[in-house]
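ok trying again, last paste got cut off:
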Amino acid sequence: MKRGFTNIFATTGLSLILLSIIATFYRAEFLFVKTVFQVLLLNVVVHLILLLMYKIEIKYLAAEAALEIILTVAVSLLFGAVFNWYTSTPLFVLVLMSMAIYVISIVLNILHMRQEANEINELIQIIKKEQ
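nice, full thing came through this time. structure:
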C-alpha cells in the first residue's frame, strides 16, 4: 500500500516536471493548480488500472509492456478529452509524454530493484560472516 502511494506520487511529480518542461518550450508562463490535481487523479487511475492488470497473468513480457503502454496512453487521452487539455497541449505531445513517463518509471523501478538486491546481498554476506 505504502509503495503504491509512493509510486503514484513519484509518477505525478515526474508528470508535472515533464509537463513543465514541455510548457516551457511552448512559452507558457504558468501551470494551473487544477492541472496538478488532474494529473494526480490521472496517475491514481493509471496505477489502479495497472494494479488490476497485474492480477492477470500475461505470458509474454513484450505483450504485457505493450498493453501497459496502450492503457497508459489511452487513459491519458481520455483525461485529455475530459479536462480539455488539448486546447493547450497537442495530442501527439500528450502521447509522447505518457510514453516517456512510462519508460522513465520502468527505469526507476529497475534501479530501485537493483538497489534492494544489493542490500539483500550485503545482508546475506554479513549473516554468512557471523556464522
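cool. DSSP finds four helices and no strands in the chain. The CA atoms of residues 80 and 86 lie 6 Å apart.
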